Amino acid sequence: MTESLGGLSRRHLLRAGALGAAAVGLAACGNSGSDGTTTSSGKTRVRLMGLFFLQDELAAARQIIDAFNAQSTTIEVQYVQQSWGTIDSKMTVAFSSGDVPELFHYYDAGLIPWGENGLLTDLKTLLPEDSWKNIIPGTLSSLTSPTKGVLGMPFETETPLIYYNTELFTANGIQPATLDNRWTWDQLRDTAARLSKPGDGMYGLSANWQAGEILFKNGLAWQAGAAPIKKDGDTFTIDANDPGTRASIDYLTDLFSRKIADPKGVDGDVVANFMTGSAAMLIRGAWARTQIPTVKGAKVKWAAMPFVKGPQANLGSGAAQTLSIPAAAKNKEAAAEFLRWWSKPENIAKINQAAGQLPPDTAALDVLRSSTNGKDYWDAAIAETAELQGQPYCPGWVPMLGKVWNPAMFAVLKGTSTYDRFAQVVNKDGTAAVRAAAGS
Questions:
Q1: N or C: which end of the chain has fewer CB within 10 A?
Q2: How far apart are CA 107 and CA 40, in angstroms?
Q3: How far apart are the first and last CA of the chain?
Q4: Superfamily grouping for domain 160-316+394-437
Q5: Which of 374, 251, 380 is nearest to 310 (CA)?
Q6: Has residue 290 got a pLDDT over 50?
Q7: What CATH class has 3-158+319-387?
Q8: How far apart, in whole angstroms, are the C-alpha atoms of residue 284 and residue 372?
Q9: Phi, psi at residue 388, to the nearest 5°?
C-alpha cells in the first residue's frame, strides 16, 4: 500500500484496482438537465462520487440512495462510481476546474490538505447540532480543523483484532484472549515468541508494520500514550522522543530482533502470509475477517480475538471514511439534506454491517449490536469503539509518515539504525514536512 492513500490498507489493497461488474451497476443514475444542476424531471441534482467496492457495501449504498430519492420530491442523488486509486487525482482536478461534485467519499487524514486550503465546506455550518450529538468525539478529532471547521461527516471507522491459527493454539495449549480477559502487550509478545520457529519459516506475529497502520490506525502508539504531534498556536512540530512513541517502537524493534516478526516481512502481503501458514497471529482491522476467506492458497484455520489492552485505552480516531461537500459545490443545501438522511442510525448501521466496519455513531452502534448479536466477532469489534479516543489534528501527517517516518523506522526494525538516529531524522524532516503542509 502507499502512504498517499493514508496507509488505509483495506481501502488501498482491496479497492485500488478494477471495480468489477457490481461497481458498474452503481454508475451514475438519473439524467442531468442542460444546466448541469437539475435533472430532466426538474429535481435539484446532487452528484455523489463514491468509493464503495464490496458487493454488499455497494448494495447497501444503493438502497440508502434509492430510498432517499423515492421520498424526496425536490432532490435526486446521482451516484458516480470512483476508485480509491484515482479519487485523489480526480478531486484535485475537480477542485482546480471548479467542476466539483456536491458530495464525495474519502477518509479523514486525506481531507486535511484540501480543508486547509479552503476547498471544503465546514459541515457544522450546514448540518443541525443534533447531527453531531451521537458521533464519537475521538473520531471527529482528526476531522476538525482549528480554523476550517469539520471537514467531513464520518460514517465508517475500524478497530483492530488479532487473528490466530486455531490449530497452533490448540496444539500448544494456548487460550485466546476474550473481551473479559484481553491480553497485555507482554502476553502477546510472549505467546508470539512461544509460537515462533523462524528456522521453519514460522513467525509468531505478523502485521502491516507501517507506522500509519500498526502504530496509529491500529493504535499501538496511542495505547502507549504517544504524543509525537506538538502544536504551539498555528505551528506544528514532530517530536519522536516522547516516552510513548519510544515505548511503541521499542516494542516493535524487540519483535524483530528476537525474530518473533519476520525481518523480511516489512512490506509483504500480511494477510496471505498468515493464511498460508507463515505467521501464527496477525494484527489487522476487524474488517479483514471479510477478506481472509478470499486468500488464494489459504490453508490455515483461523479465529479472531480482541486487540491487546495497553497502558492507555486509546485506539486513535478509527481511520474514518467520510462524506464531504466541496466549498465550490453548487447545491450545498441539497447535499446537506441527503447527508442528514445518510446519517440516520439505521442507514449507518446498514452500510457498516455490509462493509464489516464500525459506526462512529453511538446510536448506529446500538442498531448494529442488535442486528449482529455478537456473531462473527462483531462483539469484540464493537466493544473496542469505546477506545476511539482520538488523535491530534495535524496537516501533512499521513504523507510525512510515508516519506519520513517509515523509512527511518524500518531501518531501526531491521537493525541497521538506532532509535536516536530515527528520532533525529523524524524531528527535523518530519517537522519541516508538517509545517510546509500547514503553510508555516
A1: C
A2: 32
A3: 29
A4: Periplasmic binding protein-like II (3.40.190.10)
A5: 251
A6: yes
A7: alpha beta
A8: 20
A9: -80, 80
Distances (CA, A) of 48 to 36, 122, 205, 414: 14, 18, 40, 44
Looking at the chain, the domain(s) classified CATH 3.40.190.10 span 3-158+319-387, 160-316+394-437
Report CA torsion sign: 3, 4, 8, 10: negative
Which tens digit of pLDDT belongs to each residue from 202-229?
999 999 999 999 999 999 999 999 999 9
DSSP string, 343-404: TSHHHHHHHHHHHT-B-SBHHHHHHHHHHHTTGGGHHHHHHGGGG-------TTHHHHIIII
Closest CA to 88 of 108, 65, 106: 106
Answer for the pair 395, 358: CB distance below 8 angstroms, yes or no: no
Q: Which three cell numbers stand for residue 158?
A: 475500524
Q: Indicate the burial class of 104 (C-beta count within 10 angstroms; 0-12, 13-18, 19 or more).
A: buried
- For 78, phi then psi, to 5°, come to -110, 115
Phi-psi region of 373 (alpha: psi -120 to 50; beta: other; left: phi over 0): left
Residue pLDDT, tens place only, 129-182: 999 999 999 999 999 999 999 999 999 999 999 999 999 999 999 999 999 999
| Residues 251/255/256/257 CA torsion (nearest 10 deg) | 90
Three cell numbers, residue 363: 446510536
